[in-house]
Amino acid sequence: MIVVTSQEMAGSARDVSGPGWQSKRMIVREHGMGHSVHETRVLEGAELHLHYKNHLESNYCISGEGEVEHKVTGEVFPIKPGTIYSLNENDPHILRATKGDLLLVCVFTPPLSGNETHKADGSYASE
Question: pTM score, two decimals?
Answer without folding.
Answer: 0.91
